Amino acid sequence: MSIKVENNLKERKDDKIFEQKAHYIPCQVEEDGPANVSEYFEPYVVDNGNGELSATFRGHPMDGVKMSLPDGYRAVIVEEGKRPLSEDAERKFQVSGGFKEIIYWNWDKKPSRNDNLAKSLVWMDIAKAIHGD
């Protein structure tokens, strides 16, 4: 099986498509479609100052923090148009947007530099320093 990612957005002049909001919530939701986050979640996010955020998801309190990707990096969002019937068939994805900042949430503790996501973002800078440009 091979995976092919096509970027039909690389010639777009409008960079807003690459400034979308992304939330990382440590849970599994049994749904694979769009979610109206801007209406049902984001209005209830509280900025506690010092970059700390709080919110609830399905009645569970969460603590969050905004995390920026390192300079020179941008995350992309890819979507699969139609999944092939065979597991061995080529899969095709399209770039549908991107982001440079992610809001990272935890259920049971405040986000810290010791969390895996935070360490992975630091590792990109460390790898660049070790291996050069």
From TrEMBL:
Top-level taxon of origin: Eukaryota
Q: Which GO terms describe its biological process?
A: RNA catabolic process
The record's section on InterPro entries has: RNase_H2_suC
Question: Where is it found, in Gene Ontology cellular component terms?
Answer: ribonuclease H2 complex
Q: What is this protein called?
A: Ribonuclease H2 subunit C
